[in-house]
Specification:
This protein is mainly alpha-helical and 221 residues long. The chain is 52% helix and 6% strand. Strands 1-3-2 form a 3-stranded antiparallel beta sheet. A hairpin with a 4-residue loop joins strand 2 and strand 3 (184-189). The longest helix has 30 residues, at 2-31.
Length: 221
C-alpha cells in the first residue's frame, strides 16, 4: 500500500512539474512575439514580455507629471502605474476569450451587471427606448459602461471627469477600457488589448445579443 501511495505521489509530482515547465515555455514563447496592427500600436517595437512587465514608458510618466491635475492625483496615479505589470504574458485569444487581469492598471476595477435583466434596468433609467439594431445598441452599451468607468476613475484618483474622459486613459496612460464577460471593467495597455493575437468578443457584443434575444428593445424602430 505504501509503495502505491509513493508511486501515485511521484506521478502527480511529475505531472505538476511537466505542466509548470510547459507553461513557462509557452509564456516565454508568447513573450517573444512583437505585436503589430494597422491601428499603429507598439511603435517602439517591444515584445509582449517587455510590454507586460513594463507597460508604461518614460513619456507616460511625463504626461502625468505635466498634467494640469493636483499633486495628490499625480501621486496616486504614478503609484498605480509603478505597481502595474507582470512577467506573465496573457494567453492569446481562444474562441474569442481573453484574460487581461494580470496586466490591468493596478488597483482599479469597477463592475456593471452581467445578467440581461439587471443590465436592461440600468439602461432603461437613461434610455426610455433602446434601438433594435445591434450596432446602435452596442454604441449605447459602450457609452454607458465607459461613463461608469470615467466616474469611478475620477473618484479613485481625485480627478475631474472631463480630464479622465479626454486625457487620462488614452493620451496619458495609453490604455483602453476592457469590459469582461462578468461585467468587470479594467484598464489594459492598448499595445496588448488591440494586438491581433488578442482579438476577442467584447461585452457590448454579448450584451447586445442578450438584449435582442430577450426582446426588451424597441422592435418597431
Amino acid at each position: 500500500m505504501k509503495k502505491i501511495i509513493i508511486y501515485f505521489a511521484n506521478t502527480l509530482f511529475t505531472i505538476l512539474v511537466y505542466h509548470s515547465v510547459l507553461e513557462i515555455f509557452q509564456n516565454n514563447k508568447r513573450g517573444r512575439v512583437v505585436p503589430k496592427s494597422k491601428g499603429g500600436i507598439n511603435r517602439e517595437g517591444r515584445n509582449f514580455a517587455t510590454i507586460c512587465r513594463y507597460p508604461f514608458l518614460d513619456w507616460n510618466y511625463e504626461a502625468i507629471q505635466n498634467a494640469p491635475i493636483s499633486i495628490k492625483s499625480k501621486e496616486l496615479i504614478i503609484e498605480a502605474m509603478k505597481k502595474t505589470g507582470s512577467r506573465y504574458v496573457p494567453k492569446f485569444s481562444c474562441h474569442g476569450k481573453v484574460r487581461f487581469d494580470n496586466v490591468a492598471l493596478y488597483g482599479f476595477k469597477t463592475v456593471v451587471p452581467s445578467d440581461v435583466e439587471s443590465y436592461y434596468k440600468m439602461l432603461h433609467e437613461e434610455y426610455s427606448v433602446l434601438p433594435s439594431v445591434k450596432e446602435k445598441l452596442k454604441v449605447i452599451i459602450r457609452k454607458t459602461n465607459y461613463e461608469i468607468v470615467h466616474r469611478e476613475l475620477s473618484k479613485v484618483f481625485d480627478l475631474e471627469i472631463k480630464f479622465v474622459r479626454n486625457h487620462l486613459i488614452g493620451e496619458c496612460l495609453d490604455m483602453i477600457i476592457h469590459e469582461k464577460e462578468n461585467g468587470e471593467m479594467i484598464l489594459v495597455p492598448k499595445n496588448i488589448h488591440n494586438a491581433p493575437q488578442y482579438v476577442h468578443i467584447g461585452f457590448a457584443e454579448m450584451m447586445a445579443k442578450k438584449l435582442l434575444d430577450k426582446e426588451v428593445v424597441n422592435l418597431n424602430e
